[in-house]
Amino acid sequence: MLLFGAGHVGRAIARACSGLPIDLHWYDNRGEWADTPGAMLIGEEEAVRLAGRAGVDTAIGILTHDHGLDCRLAAAALAGAAGFVGMIGSATKRARLLARLEKDGIDSARLTCPIGLPQVPGKSPEAIAIATVAQLLALGAPA
Fold this sequence. Notes:
Blueprint: E1 2-4, H1 8-17, E2 25-28, E3 39-41, H2 44-53, E4 59-62, H3 67-79, E5 84-87, H4 91-103, E6 111-112, H5 125-139
Parallel strand pairs: 1-2, 1-4, 2-3, 4-5, 5-6
């Protein structure tokens, strides 16, 4: 799994992946998160390249602090072959993102937003992490 974002939800997902059959590669572009254990500091352009190069055996989780970067990551992942593309987001964020992707001619049918099983209640980082990891495991999704 390529996970973009080392904020509260990203850290909760990384913890939830521990001990599971998920090969996590975790990135953030903010220097203040450089010392987060397990997260790698990466530039935005390299992050977008990684998302675009992901293969069918790779799941992508997008939960950065920047809506513009989220959109660029989603567009790259959806233009590529990633097996799963999920993003954290509200209904408003989803609507804006889908409109932008459509305007750019990118098929968003493979995008899961908000990420995570809808049956798992809660909006806390831990609940979102459980819902997300459960979704990946339930789908037999590439990790």
